[in-house]
Structure prediction request, 533 residues.
Amino acid sequence: MQKIIRIGTRESKLALWQANKVRAELSELGYESVLVPIKSTGDIVLDKPLYELGVTGIFTKNLDIAMLNGAIDIAVHSLKDVPTSLPEGIVQAAVLKRGNYNDVLVLKGNEEFFGEEKGLIATGSLRRRAMWLNRYPTHKVEDLRGNVQTRLEKLEDSETWNGAVFAAAGLERLGITPEDTVDLPWMISAPAQGAIMIAALENDDFCMDACEQLNHHETKVCVGVEREFLRLLEGGCTSAIGALAYVDARTEEVNFKAVLLSRDGSKKIRVAKTAKLGSHKFLAKDCADYIINRGGRALMQEDEGDATKVAAVYSTKKLSELQKETLSAAIGIEDSDFIKMRFNRIPAKVMKNQHDNVLITSQNGVEAILNSFTKEEINFKNIFCVGRRTKKLIENRIGKVTYAAKNALKLAEYISKETEIKKVSYFCSDVRLDVLPTYLQAQDIVVNEVEAYKTMINPIKIDAAFTGVLFYSPSGIDSYLEKNTTDKVAFCIGETTALEARKHFDKVEVANMPDVESVLELVNMYYSNPNLS
Prediction:
């Protein structure tokens, strides 16, 4: 029986229209599919401009998580919302033929305000804001968020706005383009605007084969140039960047134009170049270099430096620069390792013992085992673990995981209630929570603990100005408490860590997923909502 493809989509009418278009095109090819709607961060937080949220992939991350967790097979996105770097394991499977890539102004009244000093228009896009102010420097721009219908309703209800800027493709696809709509040909669109992209798991051959048949080559080429330009500038929702490529069928050339502006529109750097189709490999790089060499990098840094800091947080684990960049520019962050690990040398005789049912609750446990033994020397029959990333590491370097749970308690409950297991081997640290062994022993399950590594606290005194602290383990909390106070918000990677944090902190927030990126997204969400912070 042929696989039914589960299509992940946001819940807005436009997103559902796009997902249904993909579903229809797959159906024409003989593939059966169903829609699976999923909310995104961008749909939930509607009281802040996108650039203030500072989350990379704000409209796509929850769909990425759903795909990696096996809840959906493919995801349909507006390609302009997709980060230029996709999560590991997820790839661009297809880009459909592009729709109208232009921006339009929906008027509230007549066009006379164009020549007036006090025009007022609305948009939630930093790019549209900057381009409008560059062209009409005496006008004002107010924020406008929400789906297409919501924004049209807000425009209709407003007594002060002269108009609002929309993507033409969204209005056209929903069949709701108002009569009083004006084209804005001078406004360079967002990279990949008007294009629909399908994401899939790289190793899902069935879905990849299905989606690749929907790919439109010319669109793929053009949006590829635009997104490569965006990537090379390292710009996202926090930079005012426009980029547009199109193929001239007469000359068989790729025409490309782009612009970088300051947020207030007072400064602008433009570029326009062409290259023969098939010889356009370096078109994006040439244009990005042009922008950078004329002060582009300094212009973006100047804008970032002007951002008002609303909070400062401290991570109890060292973060990569890429991870730090996912935080809003309005949030300062410092980091250091409050916990250090030292792997024990596990005696060879331990591995020779029969380990039919093995428990591993962290990536450190995996690394500790591999520090003492090669994959060939490890002979575990059933491996049970905690966390998606721990599971991935085990399956990449040791072998198949029998079952993975969200936390230690869930794992203990599964083993005691869903299996007939009476004895387990638990590869752990010298410092570990009692919840797992205590629960299992209460159910008459023998727990053989193997101390695979030592956890050493490395407490550091942090400045009182920090309003939040990021925790990734209960031992990280113990280390923090050695030298610091609890008058801050504790941002926790999971429920096990949060359980410990609640013993000491009044404010405890828990990430939706047990990974660093979700903790950082939680911080963005918290400080973007004035009712929370």
